[in-house]
Amino acid sequence: MTGARAAAGDGPERGSGTVLAAGLALMVMTAMALLLLLAQSAVLASRAAAAADLAALAAADALRGVTDGEPCNVAAEVAARHAAVVVSCFEGGAQTVEVRTELVERTMLGAASGRARAGPPP
User: Fold this and answer.
1) What is the value of pTM for the model shown?
2) Which is deepest, 9, 11, 31, 52, by most CB within 10 Å?
3) What is the Cα–Cα distance from 60 to 85, expressed in whole angstroms?
4) How much is the average pLDDT of 71-90?
5) Full 3-state SS string of the chain
6) What is the mean predicted confidence (pLDDT) over 20-29?
7) What's the mean pLDDT in 18-23?
8) 114 beta partners
């Protein structure tokens, strides 16, 4: 009977290639999902940093009197236009402003945040 099973291809390793291929495909899909999640986080971090930069520049202009408004209110308006909220905003010495922003959009890894300081050159 052993000879008949071997001739028919019913050995103990029958179907192991399918299981191996399925496991390999699952590993590749998991790696791709992790890479996409990391890429999304990098893009959101860049957007948060850009929102902080622009908000800080606008606040510094308001502080110097180039534009109208309170510096931190101006920073909040600019950040809102970039889908972010101002977490903190304070005026430093020598007409500088530091702004911290956080994007409204969140990922599984949390919210992306940015920090920027703007003012006249030292």
Assistant:
1) 0.75
2) 52
3) 17
4) 94
5) CHHHHHHHCCCCCCCHHHHHHHHHHHHHHHHHHHHHHHHHHHHHHHHHHHHHHHHHHHHHHHHHCCCCCCHHHHHHHHHHHCCEEEEEEEEECCCEEEEEEEEEEEECCEEEEEEEEECCCC
6) 95
7) 92
8) 101
State the average pLDDT over residues 24-48: 94
Instruction: Name 40's Cβ contacts closer than 8 Å, sequence gap at least 6.
Output: 107
* Residue in this structure with the two tokens 């599984």, named with its chain if needed: 108
How far apart (Å, rounded) are the C-alpha atoms in residues 57 and 27? 45
**8 A C-beta contact, residue 78 and residue 14:** no
Greatest alpha-carbon pair distance for the chain in Å reads 96
Q: Which two tokens stand for residue 99?
A: 């702004």
Q: Which of 26-40, 44-58, 96-110 is predicted with the least confidence, judged by mean pLDDT?
A: 96-110
